[in-house]
Write a structure and sequence with these properties.
Helix content: 40-55%
Largest sheet: 6 strands, mixed
CATH architecture of the largest domain: 3-Layer(aba) Sandwich
Number of strands: 11
Number of helices: 12
Distance between the termini: 73 Å
Strand content: 5-15%
Order of helices and strands: HEHEHEHEHHEEHHHEEHHHEEE
Shape: elongated
Strand order of the largest sheet: 3-2-1-4-6-5
CATH class of the largest domain: Alpha Beta
Structural class: alpha/beta
Oligomer: single chain
Radius of gyration: 23 Å
Amino acid sequence: MGPHPAVAATRSAVRGALADLAGGTVLVACSGGADSLALAAATAFVGARSGMCVGALTVDHGLQDGSAARAETVTKQLRALGLDPVEAVRVTVGTAGGPEAAARTARYRALDAAADASGAAAVLLGHTADDQAETVLLGLARGSGPRSLAGMAPIAGRYRRPFLDLPRELVRQACAEVGLTPWEDPHNADPVFARARVRATALPALEEALGPGVAAALARTAALLRADADALDAVATAAAERCAREGGLDLAELKALPEAIRTRVLRRAAIAAGCPAGALAAGHVAALARLSAGAGRGPLHLPGGLRARRSCGILVLFRPQTNESP
């Protein structure tokens, strides 16, 4: 007899996600939850049959009592699956952007360091279609724009998410079927976190009001929006090259662009000039667009100490010198 259908589905998803890699090393990011344990088990199975070295990293954020002991338990489970190397890394979580964002930043920093040290071609993450649906709803509530509504990408640099098309229930069933005991992070059910509230309240309410399948529909919507956003970003890249001038952007070229492209060009230019991407909100980009269209000459204050002004047909992005008045 073959494997349980849920186990087969997870293995197939991993196999597809790694199809373009010929051998080498991949790392699984594993929290010890059901989704990432199922990912580790599936990747161990696929790696053993494709000549890949499969390692894993579990990140101890140090935010809960007993976190070090739990990290050690996770590493034992991963080694029992045949993964090697397996490492637990303790990180220091800052405060920038709130607790969720700060923990994410620390986690990805640790994952990047581990991937660099091992020469891993890919780092696998256990996000499911339900996680994608939650991300879309959070982006919608924040008014973050189409790129945010596009959710998480299946491949983003070295990071890959094999389970984005699989429902959480199926992935957790796969974890149970291979005999693994997951750890349920209490933060995932803590209503102080926005994602936990979406998971426990918002999505179930939508399912009750609109019928089953809402999470899958939101995940499909994200995929469609991602394709559109990718196409617009490609057009914006070419437009940015046409607009580029020494010291800034050509205002006449900017004015000729469709709004969807112009705002992308402005956002990229601000980030390239040193504006922190996470702090650059839609309101800042809208203010840049108004300035470029002729609403005053500036300076316009942007996050990270950046300024913008109009000068001789150019939108100039700059940082004031220490002896220059703000």
